[in-house]
Amino acid sequence: MTVEQARLPIGLFDSGVGGLTVLKALRQRMPCEDMLYLGDTARLPYGTKSSETIARYALQATSKLVERRIKLLVVACNTATSVALDTLREAYPGIPVIGVVEPGAQASCRASLQGRIAVIATESTIRGRAYHKAIHRLRPQAHIVGQACPLFVPLAEEGWVDGPIAESIAARYLDPIFKPASGSDRVETPDCLVLGCTHFPLLARAIRNVIGPDVVIVDSAATTAFAVHQELDARGLIHPQHGDDCGTTRFLTTDDVPRFARTGGLFLGTPIAPDEVELVDL
Predict the structure, then answer these.
(1) According to CATH, what is the number of the domain 102-220?
(2) Which of 50, 125, 131, 145 could pair with 121 as two cysteines, CB 3.0-4.6 Å apart?
(3) In which pathway does it act (predicted)?
(4) Which of 153, 218, 147, 156 is nearest to 176 (CA)?
(5) Pick the CATH number of 3-99+222-279 from 3.30.460.10, 3.40.50.2000, 3.40.50.620, 3.40.50.1860
(6) Domain residue extents for the chain
(7) Which residues belong to the active site?
(8) In this structure, how many other beta carbons lie within 10 angstroms of the beta carbon of residue 129?
(9) Are strands 192-195 and 216-219 parallel, antiparallel or unpaired?
(10) pLDDT digit string, tens, across residues 157-185
(11) Alpha-carbon dihedral of residues 16, 13, 123, 83, nearest 10 degrees?
(12) Angle 101-105-106 (CA atoms, 0-180°, nearest 5)?
C-alpha cells in the first residue's frame, strides 16, 4: 500500500451518535489516525426497520464515506453490522470492512467464566441472532439469552442515561434475566452481559445498578478498535507518524447539526463544536 493510502481517514457510520463510543476507542488506540464519522440521525433508529431498509441505509451511508475517500470502513452500528456487513463487503471489495459484532462476541467469550452470556441490543439485532451465531462459532456450548431494549436508544440520544427513569426502564428489561422470580432459584443467571448496541454504554451506570456488581459488562468498542488496528497493520495502512502529528476528526450528520454536536459530545467524552459538523444528504 502507498503512503498516500495510509494517510486516508478511517470511515465510520452509525444510525446516530452511538458509534462515537467506537470512535472514542479508536482515538485512544490510534491517536495519529484521521477519522471521518457519519451519523444518520435523520433516520434513527435503524433497529426497528426491516432488514432490506437497514441494508439500503448502510449502503447509502457507506457510499457517502467512500466518495470522501477512506482507507477502512467501520460499521459502528450493531444493527447494520448484523444485517449488512456481507453486503457492504461485496459492494466495496477494495476497502476492508469491520463490524462491531464479531469483536464483541470474542470479548464476551473471554469474559464469561461459566459460558452464560446475556446480549441486549436493538430489536433487529436480537431478531437476527447475530450475537448468538458469532458467540456459538467461538464457544459452541455457551448458553445465550437475548433481550431487545428498544427504548435505550432514544434515552441515550436524549441524554437521559442515569437516574430513576433510566433505571426503571433497565429493570423492566433486565430483571427477568438477572433477578428471576421467587421459586426460580435453580435458574442460572448470566455472568456476562454484552452491550450489543453502541448507544448502550452511556447507560452502563443504570444497567450496573440493576444487574449488580458481579456481572461482567462487555462493550465492543475497545475490542473493535483493536481489530481495526490489526487490520491496518496487516495491510500496511497505519498512518505514518511525524513528530507530534495528531489525527483529525470530521463529523457528518443527516439532520440537526446542533443536536448532533450536543449529544455527540456526551458519547465522545469531549465537546463537539457545531462548526465541526457538516450536514449531508444521503
Answers:
(1) 3.40.50.1860
(2) 125
(3) Cell wall biogenesis; peptidoglycan biosynthesis
(4) 147
(5) 3.40.50.1860
(6) 3-99+222-279, 102-220
(7) 77, 197
(8) 15
(9) parallel
(10) 888 898 999 999 999 999 999 987 655 55
(11) 160
(12) 120
Cell of 88: 457492504
Amino acid at 111: A
What is the C-alpha end-to-end distance of the chain, expressed in Å? 30
Which residues lie closer than 8 Å to 190 by C-beta, 6 or more apart?
112, 116, 117, 118, 143, 145, 177, 178, 215
Which residue in the block uniquely carries the three cell numbers 467469550? Answer: 109
Q: Can 3-99+222-279 and 102-220 be said to share one CATH topology?
A: yes
pLDDT at 264: 94
Residue positions forming the annotated binding site for substrate? 14-15, 46-47, 78-79, 198-199
Which of 260, 61, 56 is CA-nearest to residue 157? 260
Contact indicator for 72, 237 with CB cutoff of 8 Å: yes
> What is the pTM for the complete model shown?
0.91
